[in-house]
Fold:
Amino acid sequence: MKLQKVFKESYVKELRDKVRAESNLSNYGKAEFPYNEKMVRPIANLYQPANLLEKLDYTDDLISAKALYEAYPNMSPLLASNDCFWTYLTHVDLFQYIQARWPKVIRGEADKNYIESHWFQGGNSFQQTSLSGLWWSVYCTIDKTRGYERRYEITDFLFNQIHYRELVGSTLFRHKEAVIGIIEFLMENPEIANSYAKWRIRFIMKYFNQLGAVKVLSYFKRDFFKAELEKKKDILLNRIQEFEIENE
Structure:
């Protein structure tokens, strides 16, 4: 097996700068992205998965997320936060998938913001259905304590409830126990989960962000987060007009 390759940091900056200057936008509509092979380096102990491109489905983010995670199941969170890794995948190994998933580039309709949002990491990268967001969505929701057949129950719920995927863009999302606890609560309370989802997930995120100012949430397990939401169950069962107006 070949070692996985990544772009050098300086080259990621160069590519991003060219997009922002609108000097290479047409390259994103080509069959293959032309890149400088001298600006590539291998990563130790991480191997390039076989046939990953064929396993992704641009019409189904859940299928793609699981395939991507299973291709790199032992990748460290540090590497999974690395721009150089994801930018190489979006421009080389999985370029055709990103093109199909975000097809304005093929039609010649993509502007610089569109390309930067989907081919590069950024402040809101985990809120986009970018490669990094897909991998992190599985990493933070796969629960092997449920057994092999049920390990993706939390993941499936997250992808089937589009508004709850706003969790992916929050700092809270990096704490796996918090994510599992919140989603388990929602799964056990369908009357809360299945209506006004957009409002409710924003309420939940705001509540735990405020709680995080006085408690170190990363110390707590999933049962703590479920218990906190149980305390707020009456609020979650009703729409708070003031909060909704503030956040719409």
Remarks:
- The mean pLDDT is 89.
